[in-house]
Amino acid sequence: MSIGSAPPGEHLENLKTRAQIELKKLLSLSTPPPPLFPYLDLGCELAKARLKPISKRPIPIADAHKIIEHQRISIGLHEVVGALYDRMNIADVFTSRMHTSGALFRQEIISRLAYPRTSKLFHAQQMTLEEERPVSVSALYRMMDTLTLSRRKGIQNVITREVQSLLGGKIDVVFFDATTFHFHQDQNDEDLFEDVALSKKQKGLDLPDESTSQAGEDTGDVPEKGENKHSFHSLSTNEENQQQMVKKSKDEDASPDNAQEESKPSDKTAKKLVEEGLRKKGLSKNGLHRKTQVVLALIQGSSGLPLGYHLFPGNTADVSTLEPAIEALRKRYKEIDNVVFVADAGMLSKSNLAYVKELGAEYVVAARLRSLNQKLTKIIIGKHDWTKLKDGRKLVEYRIGNQRLILRYCPDYAARMQHKRDQQVEKAKERIKKNAITIGGRGGRYIKMESKDAQIDEEAIARDKKFDGLHGVWTSLKFASKEEIYQRYSELWEIEESFRVMKTDLGTRPTFHWKPRRIHAHFCICFVAFALVQIAHYCYHLQYSRKPISKGRMLREIRDVEVSIIEDTGNKNEFLLPSSVNDTQTRIYHALGLKLQTRTVPRDLSKIVYNTD
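The chain above was modelled as a monomer; its predicted structure follows.
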């Protein structure tokens, strides 16, 4: 492109000025437009920068006095959990046009591990502050609505394949148990339907019917209150919106109550919730009486590695959860006929045991010793030809029909049962002394009523004393020794530990959603976060069994790996300055095949300005 020619002088200077203007126009045309889906994960960007080979060339610093710190972030979860997430290809369940939902799903899993027991509103606020791009809670809700049934199944398939690979390609034992998770609002779906009907009657209004809104591939729910349906804050580049979001994240209380952005359902949707909803009142495993809850059945392999989960309405009995959950597992793992199922007494029923045998599998299930018939009870509380173990426990076996009943006596368990019974008897005596028992009222385990007087039931105490220290399991295994069978059953504690991790370390409860798809999405996110923790912990102990750590400590160590983004304002170079690290953190990284960067590296090597002196 030619601007013109001129002899030296004023005309030539005018041509130069015009040439500079035209050059700026050409450069603006060649500059690529901003991406439609901006990079949502700053932590992922920095983690990749720390993995790049370090140049042997010294990093230039113009003036140490001009070095400033822009931001300090916890990089550990991005480097460890993020790397494990990427290695398992979990993101493949999202289609190519669902880039935003896939990125937010990954971020929400890391947020769940970084900020347990906090709401999704808080997560959105933290993403906004840390990523320097506004992310609204509605964007997270829309991401949750993309977690359809097929996509949740796909995620469980990925995790099952990974666990199968870690266990050498074969799963020989499956542990199964169920627990409950309560909701923040003690209002079940039936109560919600009644409230909607009453509200409609009082106001005389027809509420919008959200049941017609279907979650698409990368679209979501009906707009939240005060939210434009087509707005997606994570894609916004408007400076005013960014400032408002940052201000809101600073000023607003991030309490769980603020996470309640789901508007009340219409009457038609409420009827559907009554029929298909998960929020039901039932017997809580946490000692909470008649709480609105959901039942989660968890399936694990050996060493606590998760194989899948299944959600049920909160009023579902434990005994009814086994068959549907195992049927779902069969679709992911075809060789289930060679598996031994291990479960607690809550799963014990004739139909469940028959179902397991129909699969061609075997079982080890806890026995309800106090519920057996008189003939078996006499055997249990009678004298036994015990086999003594090194730890002081004793085992004995009885063959009853085509099953084996293995009894175990534990002195420590007997002492605990005695202590608990003594406490109950003391409480009963206090109630009798205070005349706190009314005729026809509830007496208690060790209180009996004779005429109008309440007395301690000595027969009940003597009867329970005969079971002190005893525990039993039913099994269909024919050739395993009684020691091997009880060893299998004793590994069931790992599933109880998993429930503790989900409830405490990940803060899965209480749940703040009422829409079934959002409830399913919430537990899907929590399950993936839990699975990544379990797999990382398994890999650590596989290599460092002599230096064990708990899952909670492992998470704390990973969170403590930090990096500072610093800038040399003299030459505008940006660097990543790591925090000090310890041996435990180094071992965690090494167990997963990662290198923990301990040196300062450029944020972007291509932008480093070297001194030419």
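The longest strand covers residues 173-182.
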